[in-house]
């Protein structure tokens, strides 16, 4: 098959659109605008250190301007750019307590966008890669009015597209529309995302486990035994540990190299028995990506993509990555290993 390496992301999306006879171009417009937002965020992330020199976020810089926190900046950029395109009926963000309505003066469309504008933002200060995660759904409610919570609270398997942008040593976009997973690298000189990772497949089994082991004593017995297994000298082939503490980065590395990322439930905070990560804006999009790459995502009890969400900021235990590693994790969590 002819390689498409080097193709712009816009051409790639248009090519996929041409393969769907029912496509109207609405989705292409939506994703193109999201890419513009990500380029703006990427530029801002790259100068985060300089912004600090000029004045810390939340304070006034030497030009007497308010310096916005980078996660607020990312959130506002996405909301503003995506509000006016006429293809969305509602949005939801990790940063907003409630569903985000499209302003009254803009037309409403048939899609819903759910996103984490800047995941891992506590890592900005130390130059660690961070990212934007997104999932896109079709609206369920009829009509051309505002979308409602019903449109937003859909199970992950209903996503029509999902992906992430990673602001790292280079900026990348990784996305799926259910036709494989494709990665694009932003070439700064020309400002274009070019296809660099075509049809990404995650190894069936990996050698990496990623988890914040400082919570070991708060995990269930099954999770503890699972991590003991990964560390045991008797486990062949041996595993190695990698944990950045920035979900997009940990996920991206494991997607390319194979392995499992885990954020299990723990007993630290009785109000949060389901771990830390959010179903709608973190777990679901990455679960769709990993599935399309041949991997798997689970709560330890059931597939992430099958969860019927009950609330916007619902948290879930997350085991995600190479299929065999995640299936093994399920066995331990369920007490079968
Ligand atoms: P955030 O959305 O507030 O940035 O939190 C999510 C981040 C993830 O990127 C990362 O996987 C996790 O928190 C790390 O949490 P911990 O510090 O408990 O290991
Ligand atoms: Mg987050």
> Can you tell me the number of structural domains?
2
Biggest sheet overview: 8 strands, mixed
Please indicate the percent range of residues in DSSP E strands (runs of 2 or more).
15-25%
Catalogue the unreliable spans.
Answer: none
By CATH reckoning, the class of the largest domain would read: Alpha Beta
Task: Please provide a written account of the structure.
It contains 9 helices and 13 strands. With 337 residues, it is α+β, with helices and mostly antiparallel strands. The strands form 2 sheets. It has an 8-stranded mixed beta sheet, with helices on both faces. A hairpin with a 4-residue loop joins strand 6 (171-176) and strand 7 (181-187). The longest helix has 21 residues, at 26-46. 46% of the residues are buried. The mean pLDDT is 91. Magnesium ion binds at residues 94, 116, 119, 282.
Layout of SSEs?
Elements: H1 9-18, H2 26-46, H3 48-54, H4 70-83, E1 88-93, E2 100-101, E3 111-119, E4 130-138, H5 149-152, E5 161-167, E6 171-176, E7 181-187, E8 192-197, E9 208-210, H6 221-231, E10 240-241, H7 247-257, E11 260-263, H8 279-292, E12 296-298, E13 318-321, H9 323-333
Parallel strand pairs: 1-3, 9-10, 9-11
Antiparallel strand pairs: 1-2, 3-4, 4-5, 5-6, 6-7, 7-8, 11-13, 12-13
Helix pairs in contact: 1-2, 2-4, 6-9
Bound molecules: 2,5-anhydro-1,6-di-O-phosphono-D-mannitol and magnesium ion.
2,5-anhydro-1,6-di-O-phosphono-D-mannitol (AHM) binds at residues 94, 116, 119-122, 212, 245-247, 276.
């Amino acid at each position: 098959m002819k390689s498409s390496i080097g193709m712009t992301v816009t051409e790639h999306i248009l090519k996929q659109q041409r393969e769907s006879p029912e496509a109207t171009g609405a989705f292409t417009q939506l994703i193109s605008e999201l890419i513009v937002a990500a380029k703006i965020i990427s530029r801002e992330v790259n100068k985060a250190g300089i912004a600090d020199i000029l004045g810390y976020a939340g304070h006034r810089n030497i030009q007497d301007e308010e310096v916005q926190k980078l996660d607020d900046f990312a959130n506002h950029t996405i909301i503003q750019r995506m509000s006016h395109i006429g293809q969305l009926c509602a949005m939801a963000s990790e940063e907003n307590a409630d569903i985000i309505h499209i302003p009254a003066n803009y037309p409403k469309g048939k899609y819903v966008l759910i996103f984490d504008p800047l995941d891992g933002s506590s890592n900005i200060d130390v130059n660690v890669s961070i990212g934007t995660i997104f999932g896109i759904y079709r609206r369920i409610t009829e009509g051309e009015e505002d979308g409602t919570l019903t449109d937003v609270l859909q199970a992950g398997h209903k996503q029509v597209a999902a992906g992430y942008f990673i602001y790292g040593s280079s900026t990348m976009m990784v996305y799926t529309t259910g036709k494989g997973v494709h990665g694009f690298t932003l070439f700064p000189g020309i400002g274009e995302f070019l296809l660099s990772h075509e049809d990404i497949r995650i190894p069936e089994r990996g050698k990496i486990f990623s988890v914040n082991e400082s919570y070991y004593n708060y995990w269930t017995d099954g999770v503890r035994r699972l991590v003991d297994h990964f560390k045991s000298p008797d486990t062949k082939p041996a595993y190695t540990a990698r944990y950045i503490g920035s979900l997009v980065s940990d996920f991206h590395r494991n997607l390319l190299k194979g392995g499992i990322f885990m954020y299990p439930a723990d007993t630290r905070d009785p109000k949060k028995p389901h771990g830390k990560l959010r179903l709608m804006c973190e777990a679901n999009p990455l679960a769709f990506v990993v599935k399309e790459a041949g991997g798997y995502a689970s709560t330890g009890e059931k597939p992430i993509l099958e969860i019927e969400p009950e609330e916007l900021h619902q948290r879930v235990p997350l085991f995600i990555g190479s299929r065999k590693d995640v299936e093994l994790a399920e066995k331990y969590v369920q007490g079968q290993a």
